[in-house]
Design a protein that fits this description.
Blueprint (H helix, E strand, L loop, with lengths): L1 E6 L18 H10 L4 E2 L9 H10 L3 E2 L3 E4 L6 H17 L5 E5 L20 H20 L4 E4 L9 H9 L5 E6 H6 L4 H8 L3 E6 L1 E2 L1 H9 L4 H6 L3 E2 L9 H10 L4 E4 L10 H18 L3 E2 L6
Helix pairs in contact: 1-11, 3-4, 7-10
């Protein structure tokens, strides 16, 4: 088995807060991602939406498209409405040979509201859970048929936030609903990534390697901060700079024969946390820790 290492552009430019890295060009982001050692990058707001423009840009910097975020509104929309909404991104990702779509339900989400405490995030009653799981299953089967799997991303401030939410979703949906495990969001929600990996490895399709600064997390939970307030305080960082030990997680991935992408992702203010510096720090930690777990790192065709 081998894994691929990618990075998310959010360290360079934050789509939810354009003032963070707003002046940073796409070219700088791609160049520094490649300089740091990564062979893949997830999509972002500054990325071209047409494959005729994006593919040449990725080739220029010797990078692959290793997925990207899609915010859904299935609680409100019909499955057919959501198929229409995702159509452009689906075509782009297929053209670029991305491995999956990082999918999250964002209707009612408070992740971008600086005035909403995380304790006030939306929740679903039993009847809505059943309808929601049915819709997710139908959409995931459609995307699977399109050869672009849905990798569900549990996220702070949304209806699928905790370990319990994530397990309930996976246990009540079709096997075509895959999982994007985010280690930082799982810890923030007081969940256990090791248990998720051990119990649901057959559904795992993508991994976001996000670390947590323990003191900031404790303060965020104690004072019930907003999600935005927590990340602006520095809750998130790259692997190797926080409190998460990735060795046990990688040992499980080795046992489960995981061979997908590991994507470094950390919402930080680029003026406080230089994106290139932190990208290199995350890459160096992952390569060292993967080696200790006897997991090979795949190179791309551009090398």
């Amino acid at each position: 088995m081998s894994v691929k290492l990618g990075v998310a552009p959010i360290a360079w430019s934050n789509d939810d807060m354009p003032e963070l890295g707003g002046e940073t060009s796409l070219e700088q982001c791609l160049a520094e991602a490649r300089q740091a050692g990564y062979i893949g990058i997830e999509s972002g707001g500054k990325f071209p939406k047409k494959s005729s423009e994006l593919i040449p840009k990725l080739k220029e910097f010797r990078l692959e498209l290793c997925s990207g975020w899609y915010g859904a509104n299935l609680r409100k929309n019909s499955v057919n409405d959501e198929k229409l909404a995702i159509e452009e991104q689906l075509k782009l990702f297929k053209d670029c040979n991305a491995p999956c779509i990082v999918f999250a339900e964002v209707s009612g989400s408070i992740q971008g509201d600086p005035n909403r405490k995380l304790s006030t995030r939306p929740k679903m009653e039993s009847d809505e859970w059943k309808k929601f799981c049915s819709k997710i299953s139908d959409l995931a089967k459609y995307l699977e048929d399109e050869e672009m799997p849905l990798g569900y991303h549990h996220h702070m401030g949304t209806v699928i936030e905790s370990q319990e939410d994530t397990e309930r979703l996976l246990e009540n949906t079709h096997e075509s609903v895959k999982l994007t495990l985010d280690t930082g969001h799982m810890l923030f929600a007081k969940g256990d990534s090791e248990k998720i990996l051990n119990n649901y490895s057959e559904r795992l399709i993508h991994v976001h390697c996000k670390d947590i600064r323990k003191n900031v997390l404790e303060n965020s939970l104690k004072n019930d901060l907003s999600f935005r307030g927590a990340f602006l305080d520095g809750a998130f960082t790259v692997p190797g700079d926080g409190c998460i030990d990735y060795k046990p997680l990688f040992d499980i991935l080795k046992t489960k024969n995981y061979s997908g992408w590991l994507v470094v992702e950390a919402e930080q203010d680029p003026k406080k946390a230089n994106p290139l510096e932190y990208a290199i720090k995350g890459y160096n930690y992952l390569t060292k820790t993967l080696s200790s777990s006897n997991i090979e790192i795949e190179k791309n065709n551009y090398l």
